[in-house]
Amino acid sequence: MFPAPRLVKYSPFPNDTMVYRTFSARRNQTYGVLLSLVAPYPAAVMYGKLGDFPNETDHEFKKDFIRDDFTAKTVPPNDDVHTAFTVLQPDTTVDNDTEEYTIGVQVDDCPGCSCSVDIVRLNCVFWDPGLDAGRGSWKGEGCRVSPTSTLAHTVCLCNHLTGFGTSAGPEPNRINFRAVFAKFRDLVNNYAVWTTMVVLMGMYFVLLYPARRMDNTDEQKWTVKNVHGNRQAHRSRFLVRVHTGHDWGSGTRSKVFFQLTGNEGSTGPRSFQQDGMTFQSGSVDTFLLTAPDPVGVLTSLAVWHDNTGQGRHASWFLERVEVTDLQTNKRTQFVCNDWIGVEHGDGCLRRTLPPTAVTSLGQRFSLKLREKFKDGHVWLSVVTSRPKSYFSRVQRLSCCLCLLFCKMITSAMWFKESQQGASNVVLTIGPIEVTAETLWVSLWTTLQTFPVNFIIVQIFRRYRPKGVPKSSGLQLPHWSVYVGWTLLVLTTLASGFFLMLYSMEWGRDKSIQWLTAFGLSFLQSMVVVQPAEPRIAWPEEQVETDQLKQQRAVRKNWLQLTSHGRQCIVGIIIITAALLMVHETWSPSAPAINTGLKTGFFNDTNSVTTQYDVLPWLEDDFVSKLYPEQRYNGDQLDWRNGLFISDMPAYRVGPTRLGQFRTHTDMCEVPLKALHSNKPCVMPYVSGTPGEAPASKNVSFSRVLRGKIGSYSGLSYNVNLGETKAETTEALKVLEANRWIDRHTAALVLDMTLYHPNVNLFSTVSLLFEFPPTGGTAATLHVSTFPLAAQGMPSTIFFVAKAVFVACLLAVVIRLVKKARKEGRSAVLQDWTMVDIASVVTSLYVIVAIALKDGFAGTAKSLISQEQEKEQRSFMDLSDVAFWSDQFTAAVAMVMWFNLVRICSLMRGSIRVRTYLDVLIKIRTQMLGSLVIFILIITGFSMLGYLLFCPYVEAFRSMATATAGLTFLPWGEVSYDVLATPSELVGPLFLFTSSFSIMYLLLSFTAAVFVSATSAMMGEKGRGRVEAARQRKRRLVTAARKTRSAVPAARGTLHYCNCDDTNECFGQTHTAESQV
């Protein structure tokens, strides 16, 4: 009777003690109320009132639930859920009046409890055998539900002795027509639903134009075309219907030939009459075929083409061919479902198809299922429907709009607003939250919208247009189409009208919640399973001629270029989406902030030489920087500016934390036991061990901190130093008095969290001091700056960028899987495939990093808001957010690098790029010589500059700096003014000579080598083209000579003449033996 309870956190509004549940109730109706509670000691009080919120003094219904009223049961993920049941009767004095009824639940001393309130309608009915023309039916007069009913038993009170029963069900949403029209004054604020309907209607009218154009194109395809070679005197006539597949690039513009064979003869090779609209993707083309003699029962159909189409229009995906014998009206179907092209599958250009009866039952079932799917799915058939159909695309589009509005109104009828408290979210996709209630609403409304839309669709499918005979198989008369349009328009308008009333009744917040549930229901109605594709064509054994090899090579080269182009576009899209995504965690101000913090906190650490110098350094230098008291001119700071650190527009968030990693003590191991054999030694630090305990509590260190000597993680001893200068100084003195730092201290880490309000960024600063057992100190500063929320662009852009990134990643994964299935293990071991796999793995790490970063960022926001309300705050650790922000940025950089490398590799398919690469490979020896000349020139001028300007110019104080300055001379490392200062003649002369030698001569030599090699290579290719032209000419002359000397056809040979539209014929000869 009741669904699984949707438990939410018991969280009353401020200044209130109850949580509420409101529903539309009839005054004379009885309702069953189920209270579910997760609490250590279940007890609650339930109040109810009609038309207003109840309280402890003003209520119409009250029910005290004690521990004995509850029954425990298991509802995953909770082990013990306590449920209690009661019966509610709002008002029995008024009939058939609907009003909002509010139930309030009060649970004392249970801040972490969860609860839910579920309501069903209860009825008592009896069986009246006189109703429904004597068949009998249930009737409710004279019976009502007793208040003593329980969850397991419903008690009925009837005033007559008849057979009775009970019924229970949820109550649909109702509209208060007396008050709903007054709410239209708030139409501007409650914009969610009506703007959605306006947008949908606008999209419908915009799509009507292309749908009507496609209908007109389909009508043109209904015409029956001729087959070349048809003659009026031919006795055998066939109607050939050719179905082209719906896959991308399935159509062809190549010249298509066929040969129909029966048990009595053959039609001979024939060609279809083609134009620009023939054999397009998803098209059905009809042809009239005539033959001089009967062919008998059809046994096979051979189909091939000459592969003369340009680009992707060369190959052809043939789905099936239907041949109808117009003499006997017998239909024979030949199924192919395969490519006819040099680059697909086995590369055959000719297929021999058997009749469908020869194929298996499963293959015929799959074919029929696929055909019904393409033409029967309401949404997809707007695009994929077969041309020869009286159910036009405009009608299909209109049915989609009607179905959409029907689903919207049924979803609104059963939608229940989320109860007060945290919702039971089962899935989160960006800003969209999907709850268990939205899943239930989507499933229920999908079933409800089926009948009315099924009737409308069947009317459009089965009506008989004007001029179509009754024997066509269409049962409904022509005027029924007007009934279908009337039903469609009235259903759409009525659904839109009542949906508008529901939105006004609900208000803005509930309307937005409903849109989420409706969106999921809409997607559910469109999800279908694609049937498998049978492949049953017989490939022809064909001779691998030179022409076929050349066509296959040209076609594969074109496909390779196309594939490389698509991969380049996907790579560019991935790089663009990654750049947009990284702006969510990176800011242009972050590098400058990191540099400033490192300069401010790290410069004075040289005074720390042992672990005992840390506390004095903290009391003196560190405290003065972290808690400034005066301005630069000596004026005192007020309390607002005192929150900021010295010389930086950032203030502290929470107290500073000082952590300590300790080491162990053990006996010294020395070669000579007589030397200090019984003296303990301080052992090196071991990660994960607490060491000797000081006067503080050990906690787990959540991250790995790397220093110059080692890494530190596991258990550490932490102390909060306070939020003011006085608290920090006092805490440091207590630590010094308790000897908190001693010789067992392996490392000290000082953590602080800062906020930069001018750029809305947070910074985590970790200053690590390492103390090895051998003595000395090594200081390391770690600074990370990041935002907690997206900035600079709307969150919608980041969401779209993430969705596009995931979609492109799926496309790359699908391409790699197809390649691995086609080529096997060898494809995975290829170099560039390894680059693709590395890019995919890194992209998956990007998704993981951004998910963890968002999760930790949400936790950090909650932590900050909670700590701000406390008087004694604890340390705000944002290190997890900083870590995953850095990981996300680094992973995005790797993804961009992999895709850039892949794009550069794909450009090798271009002839021009390949030529340049070949040139570079050919001149690598000459280029190595140019590099040697460059090194010698740089070295010579570096030595000369070092000898001339060493005492005067900083850039020539050493050979290394002189070499670096001259190497980057074009970027202004050495300027004219600097060299002119020591000598007005030697300096400018040296600069001119070095610049001329390095830039002009060297580049000229390199360019000369490159140009000469390019010219030589292009000359070789030119000579190759001339030789290829000569060979083609010799082959043509040889073929012509063989044709002239050919033997005439033998007597008894059948001649078929295939003619085109201009009556120009070409002969086709077939001996009698070839017909058998």
UniProtKB/TrEMBL annotation:
Molecular-function GO term, any one: calcium channel activity
What InterPro entries does the record point to? GAIN_B, GAIN_dom_sf, GPS, PKD1_2_channel, PKD_2, PLAT/LH2_dom, PLAT/LH2_dom_sf, Polycystin
Instruction: List each copy of the GAIN-B domain by range.
Output: 1-176
Mostly located where?
Answer: membrane
- Gene Ontology BP, a term: detection of mechanical stimulus
* Matches recorded under Pfam families: GPS, PKD_channel, PLAT, Polycystin_dom
Question: How does it sit in the bilayer?
Answer: Multi-pass membrane protein
Q: Where is the protein situated, by its record's location annotation?
A: Membrane
- Domain PLAT: from-to ranges: 236-354
| SMART domains xrefs | GPS, LH2
Transmembrane domains' residue ranges: 191-211, 439-460, 481-500, 797-817, 829-852, 888-907, 928-949, 989-1013
Keyword Hydrolase on entry: no
Q: Which GO terms describe its cellular component?
A: membrane
**What are the disulfide bonds?**
668-681
Q: For this UniProt record, give its keywords in alphabetical order, as a comma-separated list.
A: Disulfide bond, Glycoprotein, Membrane, Signal, Transmembrane, Transmembrane helix
Q: Give the family per the record.
A: Belongs to the polycystin family.
- Record protein name field: Polycystic kidney disease protein 1-like 2
Gene name? LOC109484825
